[in-house]
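ingest -> validate -> predict -> emit
validate: passed (alphabet ok, no gaps, 268 aa)
predict: started
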Amino acid sequence: MPRANRHYLPGYVWHITHRCHRQEFLLKFGRDRRRWIQWLFEAKKRHGLSVLNYTVTSNHIHLLVRDNGRENVIPDSMQLIAGRTGQEYNQRKQRKGAYWEDRYHATAVEAGAHLIQCMVYVDMNMVRAGVVKHPSEWPHSGYNEIQNPPKRYTVIDLEGLRELLDFRSREDLAAACRGWIEDAVNRGVHRREGKWTESIAVGSEPFVSATREKLGIKGQGREVIGTNGSYELRESSVPYRAILGHENDGLRPENGYFWNDTVGMSKA
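emit:
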């Protein structure tokens, strides 16, 4: 099986997807999704990871981050989050074997309109799966945190996100996010788009072409495709599929996480 794409360029925004091993529902329970989020917070604290958005489902995760130029911030953060989540689950369940399927996949996203589209795509994940009718009903995501930032244990880099999207205040950012989601819900935007999970880069033609050039030999032979101002740099990898079949009926946005109610953060 080909390994998923993990190219990195400093200063870029990356949409990361990671599936549980064999697409098993290893994140089915709220406590495990909350622990993944807690380790995400720990990665932010330890490594300075800039988190722009996230969603934890029952068998995969979506994560939007910005590379701040510090070497290995994203790989070290993902190693911490994925490793500790899997270790804790296997210990609790007395389970052996891989928790995550192969490598995670990283897609470079151009700031501006394409970043907005990716934000909405991440937020609408569980709506597409038919589990909830609105992203606000799923507690294991960044949408509610953007709308009502907690005073402590904030995961989202609100200032970084505000600057990237060019909003004057966090309140303006939150209002805009609400508008984007309301529009998506009203229009019934439930279609999965492979470009966010299978490409090396998504954005305008100049952005995608420049990304291919910066990748050097790794970008050679990659095809730039697209129309109407949206382009992608294709990656010949195993297709990413978020399969949420009959087990959707057993999923609920139970146990909305509150940091002061959860188990204290473990230390490495």
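The two ends are 32 Å apart (CA to CA).
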